[in-house]
Design brief:
Length: 287
Amino acid sequence: MRLRAVGPCALALVAAVSVLPGRQAADTVATVTYSEADRRQALEYWTAGRMRQAGASLDEGATPADQKVWRGPRIASIGRLFFVNDKGEDSWCTATSVPARNDSVVLAAAHCAQVPASPGNHHISLVFVPGYDKGAMPYGAFAVRAFTMPRSWETDDAYDVAALVVDARAGRRLADVVGTQEVAFTGRPGGKVTVFGYPGTRPQRGEELMSCTATARPSRHHAQEVPCDMGGGASGGPWLAHFDGARGTGTVTGVTSYGNDATGDTAIAAEYLGPLARQVYDRAQDE
């Protein structure tokens, strides 16, 4: 079962997205670009009040005991990724700022931006809010101007990883404002990892950054899993290996993709970050 992004209720219609063509169909990476008008509308749409309301009426059950509110130093590079989904609902995922030539890339799950196996069916009004905490936006909101994903995700629901490119804010690029987490494309499980996310479970309902530490193990479908039962909204959250809690830094070795609640399994899974993920990431650096 895909660990869904959370969308509690359908709200007012918003401006339609203007999606520009990607690369040739034979390319393994697809690119979607949002117009300047779309990005301006996204920033106007996502007020602090609307962000808080996104999870206020949601009930995904109680937060499991293996998850803790992060009480260490603020991790500015991790934040909530807000968007309006294909049903017209306000929704969110989790995303992470990573090093890039354009200093403007965040990693997340592909289903946080694109409906799987549904070409042209993209989410709209995407903004990244680094360091989000109980309605506070200490670094502001960054509009998403483009994202890259495996073409296999767009056409066949395969390989749930995306790289999103955000606009500068007040003349400063994302990495210059919030820093980055390193990322490794090893194509294997990350070992001991600390998983971060903004799940919609109560009482937090997406308002606080949650964490769970476990050892990643191989899973089916060329994926890795950890026994952390994070709910919807944690999708796209980073799996940080070699995590330094005093500094709030580590190396991204996966991003949360799906869980198996339907089978009673409390594990969540992430794709291996291998060659295809590297291609998605490299493409985003040049957007």
